[in-house]
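<given_protein>
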Amino acid sequence: MLLNILRSYTDLPRNIHLLFLLEFSLSLIHVAFILILNIYLRKQGFSDPEIASFNSLRFVGALAFALPLGIYIRGKKLKPFFKIASLVVPLTSAMIIEAIHFSIIPLIQLSFLLWGVGMMLMRVCSLPFIIRNTSNDNSTEALSLSAATWSLSTIFSGLLISGLDWISNLKIIDHIITFNEYSILWIITLIGMCSYIFSKKINEESNQNNEKRNDLFSLHRTYDWKIIFKAISPLILISIGAGLTIPFVNLFFNSVFGFNSSNFSILSSFTAMLVFTFSLLVPTLRKKYGYWMTIVFVQSLAIICLVIMSLTEIYATHTFAVFIAVSAYIFRQPLMHMAHPSSNELMMNYVGKNNQELISALSSSLWSASWFISAKIFEWLRLLEFRYFEIFLITAFLYAIGVILYSLLIREHEHNQKRSSMVLPIADELTID
């Protein structure tokens, strides 16, 4: 069985493998920023509200450009956008690191903004690219492999951060290199520059079509907005909830249990190993048990784990609290990430081929908008002296509503499939004697 699962991934088209390597390279930088950038900012003297304000800016650029990009890329080659992303992300990452080091606040804000645009280019284009380069037989595997890049890059980044932190410093001739957040972020940014090599090797066939080009004034006629709105409704709630938690979990463990960059990176690496393993099993589970298992059930368990983790802040002074918090975090991550490939596939199948580029852009845009709103909400709640567990419980509530909406979407999608399978195509009817 294991060999069959692995073979299903190795048999994917070469372009999908190159996209995986491209996403992995850029995700190394993204994950490193998630793991230790907030702690680096805190060590440079920035407060929680200031950190949240900086984080919110990386979603503004994506929010502004994702929808126009989704409209523009319909029928166009996506390779040029991957190449731009592979240049913009490492360059702006370097700008962020240096701007924080010298405490140049306007440059920090600009760099976060441009960094978000670079990541948005990759995200908006990756889903349509996967659908274009796969069939119904292997699209789930391709989406799962794409989702697994996050966990794999978390493993690699986490181990690298912890390893360099353990070494502490290295003497080369007369120079001593100290491995702190500043130098570690620089090392991972340099590694992430390999992404340009993979983007350049993508061999994309022309996808031009004879469809009439769309403009902003014809959008209401070109796309099925009722279907699109239904598809993205759960995503809006899930993404707002995630934005209140994911970027700030490291601050939670740092403030409540005293975790430093190395501690949290090791924890995240171990968790990512589980995420990666579970992600590879998603196609098999989805084909055997359907969307109910890989979306509704696993996300419900993840919500329970989040609630347990958040409540440990109340009794953090007890020794056992940290073990419960770590255990809940470890189980929550793979459960929540398991739903991503299936929910993306459900969304793309539900809206149909005509709406896929736009739904990809909208999902990226809405994710960015939601995380921007969430970062601002987190900033305000911390200014009002809300505790972490109170904020995380808000996330759990939003997740729960999102899961309910996903269950309604799955039910409608399955009903539509059954109804379409019962209707005989007109072409076939005409051939019957």
